[in-house]
Design brief:
This protein has seven helices and five strands, in the order H-E-H-E-H-H-E-H-E-H-E-H. With 162 residues, the protein is an alpha/beta fold. It has a single domain, classed as HUPs (Rossmann fold, 3-Layer(aba) Sandwich). The chain is globular, with a radius of gyration of 15 Å.
Length: 162
């Protein structure tokens, strides 16, 4: 099941909670999918019943990764994640998603039991504080592997093109 907006997924979350299911939220860019993305998502899925994945918007990716990113549009990244059949719900995060208040608003709306992150996730303490406020917790589900990343794939491709 794939939805593209927060409003569309709220009823699904409510239904899952009524059934006593544990909601797991994971967010990220997921530009060029690779084994570490898949490992992270599988581990995130294991800590709950319903895995919701929020994708960074194209504008946010440009702001955080540089003007030449993303390689794949948000729509394509959404489609690619759906094809993995790991996430139950995938949506595109709001374009305005850069402040702690933006993050808190998302957690308040979705109210996940768990925010799944990797070991290199930035702002862990701030995330823990927000999740605690809304009766959830941050869980490191995956140890970051710096040898495998979208940036590494892009850089290796550029080297081979020369």
């Amino acid at each position: 099941m794939t939805h593209t907006t927060i409003t569309e997924i709220l009823p699904l979350i409510d239904q899952a909670k009524v059934k006593g299911k544990r909601i797991v939220l994971a967010t990220g860019v997921f530009d060029i999918l690779h084994s570490e993305h898949l490992n992270f998502l599988r581990k995130a899925k294991q800590v709950g019943d319903l895995l919701i994945v929020g994708l960074e918007s194209d504008l946010r990716v440009k702001q955080t990764k540089g003007s030449d990113r993303p390689i794949n549009t948000a729509t394509q990244r959404l489609f690619n994640l759906k094809k993995l059949n790991v996430a139950d719900v995938v949506f595109i995060l709001p374009t305005q998603f850069s402040t702690p208040q933006d993050h808190e608003n998302l957690i308040k709306q979705l109210s996940p039991h768990i925010l799944a992150v990797s070991s290199n996730s930035p702002h862990l303490e701030a995330k823990r504080k927000i999740l605690t406020k809304y009766h959830g917790k941050v869980k490191i589900v995956h140890q970051h592997n710096p040898l495998i990343s979208t940036t590494q794939i892009i850089n290796n491709q550029k080297i081979h093109e020369k």
